[in-house]
Write a structure and sequence with these properties.
The chain is built from 18 helices and 19 strands. With 471 residues, it is an alpha+beta fold. Strands 15-16-14-13-17-18-19 form a seven-stranded mixed sheet, sandwiched between helices. Strands 3-2-1-6 form a four-stranded mixed sheet. A two-stranded antiparallel sheet has the order 4-5. The N and C termini lie far apart (44 Å).
Length: 471
């Protein structure tokens, strides 16, 4: 017997609604709806089109039920740190701001004047990146939007609220905000108070597998879902869901969740809060089943995505598959620091890469294929540095690296990463976040075994994987 569940997976560049059929020895995903996630520049501020995303979710649910499928549950995951604000009546207050907006420039230094960064790291276990929710809230501390808000909801919690009418916060995504106490796993009243934020903004925490509630009657009527269909909390940070679906056979693995960002690290039972870990840029985020994702953010395929956007604007029509084939025929050339904040904001990425190379004394890549080769070599080296540092700082040895997410399709990047890491890289599954989302739902419904190792064994037994040996 298998059960159908719906996994809503919202990425930084696209969203998808996936139908999963899960049961003993069975795990099959099919895409029912995919839609673009395009930010909107409005009044000088970069926003997410969250209403468009919600429309895409409803369209996807409608596509599922119109095919005669009756899902047992719905789960939502997305990228981290960004949030919507709702007032006392439950109405959205303004549009959520994109983490790449420049409003947070200089805010890390401002916060460090109130809470020294070593103290902040010891309390939260999170690397103080300016994109984090904490710094976004400080950046809009005096805004009318924040003053009118009754509750802060991270993006998957906001979608869940619109589906069910139940507000709250899921723990894996909440752990990315830099507002949770790493020791208690609860909101840090101490930190919230020091920053002058209102405690009532932050709702009750849920863990993956708990039910939010049934869909609202109007959602059921609009989408064709049966009345009472539950929405289940999953690892709502997409990386938490992706890591839950890593097909590891032992504990001695590293992972790279590779998409717009590359999240590179190891899975631990306890956080690493040393000063060396802080200085190395590592963060401790909550995973499914109380695990700790000890990882470093690497800029990821955003570099290539922004290059492609610029080249299209310039009338250069080659797509990424063609450019990757051309790049694979080129020898290694320039390498940039993929973690440099210079590459964070939208803009002319090829020009920024060229300028970085010129300043660093690297050969400036000539033409799109050479730029793509530079990006792939740079990401592979950044992956390898993060894997090596994760082992050194945690004492957790790695025999294999699992690369999941959209980057698993990128043969050149997978091979270069294996070469740089010096251990095999197992690529796949591509839709790891949706798969982990679906597995947590199925486990909550009682149709698959309860251990994380069992979920991973099901992925290993049912999904196509490819191993790249280091050359």
């Amino acid at each position: 017997m298998s059960t159908a569940v719906v996994a809503v997976d919202l990425g930084a560049s696209s969203g998808r609604v996936m139908l999963a059929r899960v049961g003993p020895g069975r795990l099959a995903l099919s895409e029912r709806h995919r839609f673009a996630n395009q930010p909107v520049l409005l009044g000088g501020t970069l926003h997410w089109d969250v209403l468009g995303l919600y429309r895409g979710v409803l369209d996807g649910l409608r596509a599922v039920t119109s095919a005669g499928v009756v899902p047992g549950s719905v789960g939502v995951d997305s990228w981290a740190v960004d949030y919507g604000l709702i007032d006392a009546a439950g109405t959205l207050v303004g549009l959520p701001v994109h983490y790449r907006d420049d409003r947070t420039e200089g805010v890390v230094d401002e916060v460090a004047g109130q809470v020294p960064l070593p103290e902040l790291y010891a309390l939260t276990g999170v690397r103080p990146l300016r994109i984090n929710t904490l710094f976004q809230l400080v950046a809009e501390a005096d805004s009318a939007r924040l003053a009118a808000a009754a509750r802060l909801l991270l993006i998957p919690d906001l979608i869940g609220y619109w589906l069910t009418g139940v507000a709250g916060a899921e723990s894996t995504n909440a752990s990315t905000t830099q507002l949770l106490d790493i020791h208690s796993g609860q909101w840090s009243d101490e930190l919230i108070g020091k920053l002058g934020l209102r405690r009532e903004l932050f709702g009750v925490l849920r863990t993956p597998g708990q039910q939010l509630g049934p869909v609202r009657p109007e959602v059921a009527a609009d989408t064709g879902l049966p009345a009472g269909t539950p929405v289940t909390a999953v690892g709502s940070h997409d990386t938490a869901s992706a890591v839950a679906a890593v097909p590891a056979a032992t504990e001695r693995f590293g992972y790279i969740s590779c998409g717009t960002w590359s999240l590179v690290g190891v899975e631990l039972s306890e956080p690493v809060l040393s000063e060396d870990a802080r200085l190395a840029g590592f963060t401790n985020e909550s995973g499914v089943d109380g695990t700790v994702r000890f990882l470093r953010n690497v800029m990821g395929l955003w570099l290539a995505q922004e290059c492609l956007r610029q080249w299209r604007a310039d009338g250069l029509g080659a797509g990424l598959p063609e450019l990757l084939r051309a790049a694979a025929r080129l020898p290694p050339g320039a390498v940039v620091d993929a973690d440099d904040e210079e590459f964070l904001a939208p803009g002319d990425m090829p020009a920024r890469i060229a300028a970085w190379c010129a300043r660093a004394g690297e050969p400036v890549p000539e033409g799109p294929a050479a730029v793509v080769r530079c990006i792939m070599d740079s990401l592979a080296r950044a992956h390898a540095r993060a894997v090596a540092d994760a082992q050194r700082l945690s004492g957790h040895a790695v025999d294999v690296v699992h690369l999941v997410g959209g980057g698993a399709r990128n043969e050149l990047l997978c091979q270069l990463t294996a070469d740089a890491c010096g251990v095999p890289v197992v690529a796949g599954p591509v839709e790891a976040a949706a798969m982990g989302n679906a597995l947590v739902q199925a486990r909550a419904l009682g149709v698959v075994p309860g251990e994380l190792a069992d979920l991973r064994a099901l992925v290993r037994a049912t999904q196509p994987l490819r191993t790249y040996q280091p050359r």
